Amino acid sequence: SNFWNKKKQVKINKEILITTVGNLNKIKNHLYIIELLEKSKIKYVFNIIGEKLKTQKGYYNNLKRYVNFINSKKRNKINLLGKKNHLQIKKILNRTNIFILGSKTEGLSISLLEAMSMQCFPIISKESNISQIVRNNYNGLIFDLDERSFMKCVSKYLKMTNKNRNIIIKNAQKTVLKLNKLNI
Fold first, then answer.
1. Helix (H, G, I), strand (E, B) or coil at 121
2. Over the range 137-170, which residues count as b (16 or more CB within 10 Å of their CB) and which as e?
3. What distance in Å separates the CA atoms of residue 38 and residue 41, rounded to the nearest whole number?
4. Residue-wise pLDDT tens digits, 8-42
5. Which of 124, 127, 128 is nearest to 101 (CA)?
6. Count of CB atoms within 10 A of residue 73's CB?
7. What are phi and psi of 61, to 5 degrees?
8. How far, in Å, are 8, 49, 107, 125, 152 from residue 16 at the CA level?
9. What are the pLDDT digits (tens) for 87-115?
10. Are 33 and 63 in contact (CB under 8 A)?
11. Could you give the CA distance from residue 128 to residue 5 in angstroms, rounded to a whole number?
C-alpha cells in the first residue's frame, strides 16, 4: 500500500519531526542531542523511543527532568515514548523527517536500518561506528559529537532542496535493500 511510501516534505517554519530509537542509557547520548537541538534554533518535535533501564535510573531521571524543562518553554516538544512494538515504531517512523543517532558507540543498529527503509533522513554521529552503513552526503549525514559539526549537518539538511533530500533518502533505502540481499 501507499501508506508506507508517502513523501516526507519538509516545510520551513513548521516543526521538523525527529525520532531516535534505542534503550535510554548514557551511551545513546539523548541529553547531549537535545542540548544541540536546542542550540540549533530549529523548531522540532523529538520522539525518543526506548526502554528505561534499571541500571540507568540516574540517567533516566536527568533526561526526564531536562525533557520537562524543554517542554515547559513550549517552543519545541520532546516525547519520551518508552518502549514501543514494531508496528507502533513504524507508524512513528512513517511521519518522521530525520532519524537521529547520536550514540557514543553503536553496534549494527537495526533501528537505523529500519528508519532508512522507511524513508527517514539519517543523521548519525561518527562515533557511533556505523560509517560502513551510512556514507556522508550519499545516504545520510554524519557529524562529530561536537556542536559545530552537528550544526553543519542540520544546516546542510535545511538548505537541501526536497529533490536532493529525496535522493539521499532513496540511497538510504537502497543501502538497506542491499544489506537485506546479503542477509546481514
1. strand
2. eebbbbbebeeeebeebbeebeebeeeebbebbe
3. 6
4. 555 555 789 999 999 999 999 999 999 999 999 89
5. 124
6. 8
7. -65, -40
8. 10, 17, 27, 19, 16
9. 999 999 999 999 999 998 887 788 999 99
10. no
11. 28
pLDDT-derived band at 2 (thresholds 50, 70, 90) equals very low
Cell numbers 544489506 correspond to what residue? 179
**pTM of the full predicted structure?**
0.89
Cβ-count burial 94-133 (b if 16+ within 10 Å, e if not): eebbbbbbbbeebeebebbbbbbbbbbbbbbbebbbbeeb
Q: Which amino acid is at 98?
A: I
d(CA 173, CA 121): 10
DSSP element (H, E) containing 99 = strand 98-101
Residue that the C-alpha cell 533530500 belongs to: 165
CB 23 within 8 A of CB 51: yes
- Residue 117, H or E segment: helix 110-117
H/E stretch holding 87 reads helix 86-95
